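Dear Dr. H.,

I hope your travels went smoothly. While you were away I took the liberty of generating a structure for the chain from your last submission, since the lab meeting agenda had it listed for discussion. I wanted you to have the full record in hand beforehand rather than looking at slides cold. The sequence, exactly as received, is reproduced here:
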Amino acid sequence: MNALPAGVPVNAPRVDHLVIADLVEPGSRVLDVGCGDGQLLKLLEFTRAVDGRGIEISQKGVNECVARGLSVVQGDADTDLVDYPDDGFDYVILSQTLQATRRPRDVIEQLLRIGRKAIVSFPNFGHWRVRLSLFFKGRMPVTEDLPYSWYDTPNIHFCTIRDFVNLVEELGASVEKATALDGNGQKIGLSMPWWFWNFFGQQAVFLLKR
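The corresponding predicted structure, in token form, is as follows:
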């Protein structure tokens, strides 16, 4: 991953944000769906000089983005992406948000319609720590990437890396690049099979195209 340039006003950027930034061509038009407080968009502005836009469901997140000088509107990925034109952006990004959508398949289809390429990152529910927690404790796991208890989590559609790959195939899309990250934020070998990523990957980042 590229080193973070001096002066970037982002504190401790998430590892998946750095991976995503490496996938984006400089000067691209980017839409960040579920952009939160705007850290990823700001990172992309500084490291990739993108023409960035964002959509965020929470008013608090929108306010934080505006305070960063970002162009972000309030909206819901499940209902408002239909208002964006075909091929309106070079990249549409969905970072750690897929599992919180009501209709993830429809959302992925919208990403691929709106952007020439789509970048999706998500926590892997097939990770070995999650499996062990279910097996030995018999309880829904609470981890760094899945930090909520079952009764107050915003996540409603958990998936594994294998689940996501199957969905991409069903949609007729293709995986241009993919990265799985272990619990230490290190990339898992690209030559490893999907089952290995599914077991040892704590989170994953996919670059998709139609």
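Two observations you may find useful: The CA atoms of residues 193 and 199 lie 10 Å apart. Residues 15-209 form a domain with the Rossmann fold fold (CATH 3.40.50.150).

With kind regards,
E. W.
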